[in-house]
Every structure is written in structure tokens, then in C-alpha cells.
Amino acid sequence: MKIVDHYLRSCHLRLISLCLGAFVAIFLVIDFLEKIGKFSRGGATLAQMGTFFACRLPEVLVQVIPLAVLMGTILSIGALSRQSEITAMRSGGMSLLRIGRPLLMVGAAISIGTFAMEEFLVPPASGKASYLEEVAIGKKNPNTFFRQDNIWYRDRQAILQARHFEPATRSLRGVTLWRLGDDLQPQTRLDADRALFTDRGWEFQKVSERQVAGGTAIAPRSLDTMTVPLSLKTDDLKVVGKYSENMGYFALRRYCAKLEQGGYETTAYRALLQSKLSLPCTSLVMVFLGIPFALKSSRSSGIAVGVGLSLGIGFSYYILSAILISFGQAGTLPPLLAAWAANVLCAGAGVWLAMTVER
């Protein structure tokens, strides 16, 4: 039985690797064709472009691994079935679950590896790629940077901190601004509930202003609004909104906790947080779905049909998952349901197909 398990695993992994390599190559070629014009206009060097696409590789792998697993499963089981090897195994007393066990173990190992990659490799690599694209090549303001729970910005004689940026309203929430003297010592501190970007600058709302003398804060005065001219633009902050999608699970969970402590809405981030757990599990679900699907369709179909079925199922899953997560981010569905519903539906389809094949 160990020989059979090893044989099944090797066939499965070989086809997954071939499919993964093909998908990654296609993805990177399309990404290159999309960005080459922008990079040329920005004067990017070959080293910068090579580093950018190398940093994009972990994120691309995380996105295409489930589709490669599904296609590798359907093609490997289909090939074994057409050669009557599955029939021989079942004639020897092996159930469908026993045949699929080594493949499911491969799917589980890939899911764990995907989570680890998403947690440890994707955030720093994506941050480096974003810096190259937006700052080194795109020439956006390099003074803006993102931490897991704060936005910081240095503008001449001022330092700004904000808890949260809302791209839809072009506003910052939970803002603190320190104005510095020539000796870089704070002279004034502004605290505002919100800062809205306007043509005249950033309009601070519900402001508390404190004058600082000799390191001691003087009694504050309250203002409804105050316009503060800063060179910070919303285009510089859009990088922040994108970066939250590439944060690891634990970093994003800490970020949500910080926002909730400040009284800010975290529904959109909670749906994204749940997806950090559900999406790595997709590889296991795809193996579970692919085995009975391949057995039902492989006898009367070839490789081309297997590839077409894999692409059809995979893209349908991605579309469904994206729609459900967007509903969760909008608050229409609970975050837990929005993130896991697609996996549950695919697993249910796999159970139903397995029962029909077993019969």
C-alpha cells in the first residue's frame, strides 16, 4: 500500500508542478505586458524590473496554487482512470476514500504551505514590490509608509500620524499632527477625529490644538475645522489601502483590534481576515472536489476536456468567492459566512459527486 500511495502522490505532484509553472508563467507575462509601458515611462532599470517581478512571485503563487491543484488532480486521476489503474485499485478492494487519501494529504500539505507563504513571504515581498512600483519607479512621495496599525507621514516641519485611511471618502481617521521648530522640538500638537482632503489642503475636523512650550502642553483649544496645508496626496495613501490585502493573518488581526479599540468600523477588514484562513484551505477543497469529478468524466474525455473543466470550475470558484467576500466587506453577509461559503459549497459538491461515484 505504501508503494501505491507513493505512486499516486508522485503522479499528483508532478502534474500540479507542471500546471503551477504554466499558470505562473502566464500570469507574469500578462503582468509584464501590462506594466512595461508604465515602467518605461518611469525610467525603470532592468534590475528594478527584475526585482519587482521576483517580489511579485509569492503573491502570484498564492493566487494560482488552488487552480493548479484542481487541474493537477483532474488530469492525474483522469490519466489513471483511462489507463484502468483506478479500476485495478478498486478491484483490489481499495475504496474511493482510500485511493484519494494520499492526494488529500498532498492538498492539506499545500494548504498549510500556502498559509505559511501568505503569512511570512507575501507581506514583505508585496511591500517591496509596491515600493518599487509606486515610489522608485512611479515617483510618488517616499515619506508615506504603512505600519500594521498606523499611517505615518513626515512633511518638512511636521509629523502626521493617522489610524486609518478611507479611499472612498479621501479621509484620514484618528489624526495627530505635531508641528516642529527649527530644533525639531514639538511646538504644536493637533488632534482631530477626521481629516478630509480638499483643494486647499487637509481639512481637520473636531480639532483639539495644544501649544507646547518647554516640553509642557498648555491647555488646549477646540475648533470645529482647521485647514492644514500638507504635500501629502491621496494617491500616496492609496498604497496603504492596497497593502492591507497583502498583510498576514496575525498582522491583520492585530490591525483590526487596534481599529476597534479606537471605535472605527472594521467590517471590511474582518471579511478579509476570514479569507486569510479560507483561501489557503481552497487547495484541499479542490482535491476533494477534483477526485470524484475526474472519475465521472475521465472515461469519455481527454486532456483538453480535463483542462477545460479545470479552468471552468476554478474560475467559477474565484468569481463566487470574490462576490461573497465583497458582500462580506460591504456588511451584507457576516464575515465568517462570506469567507467560507464558497469552500463549503465546493466541499458539498465533492461529497455529492463522491457518493454517486461510489454507487
From TrEMBL:
Chain ranges passing through the membrane: 12-30, 60-81, 302-325, 337-357
GO cellular component: ATP-binding cassette (ABC) transporter complex
Location within or outside the cell: Cell membrane
InterPro entries in the record: LptG (IPR030923), LptG/LptF_permease (IPR005495)
Primary localization: membrane
Keywords of the record: Cell membrane, Membrane, Transmembrane, Transmembrane helix
Parts forming coiled coils: none
Lineage top rank: taxon: Bacteria
Gene Ontology biological process: lipopolysaccharide transport; transmembrane transport
Membrane-topology descriptor: Multi-pass membrane protein
Pfam assignment, any one: LptF_LptG
NCBIfam families with a match to the protein in the record: LptG_lptG
The protein's name: Lipopolysaccharide export system permease protein
Organism: Geobacter argillaceus
